[in-house]
Amino acid sequence: MKIREYFQTAKGYGVLATADADGRVDAAIYAVPHVIDEETIALIMVDRLTHHNLQSNPHAAYLFIEEGEPYKGKRIYLKKIREEKGGELLNSLRRKKYPELEGKEFLVFFRVEKILPLIGAGSDP
What we know:
Number of helices: 3
Helix content: 10-25%
Oligomer: single chain
CATH class: Mainly Beta
Distance between the termini: 7 Å
CATH architecture: Roll
Radius of gyration: 14 Å
Shape: globular
Mean pLDDT: 90
């Protein structure tokens, strides 16, 4: 199943894990990513610890846990490729409005490096 199709149908929640340049790890709850194409996803974030970590270490892992069946979902390994502060694309992708964050958000783009099932080591394109 293609990543776009997967996220159009799957219900659940995500956790984005990042680490700073010294390897100190952070994990944060994130919404379903915005699928730009089959190799690129984007997440909207503010300048907190996760965003800060990505400035010195572009690697991240997004863990998506599906509702319903236990232990079903995806592990998606990512590398940050660029970001934009605010802008029309960010506003067009936004699912919810947070007026207090307006002008403080970044649209961060990631290259999808690998996708694995939530449990197990097999490849899952």
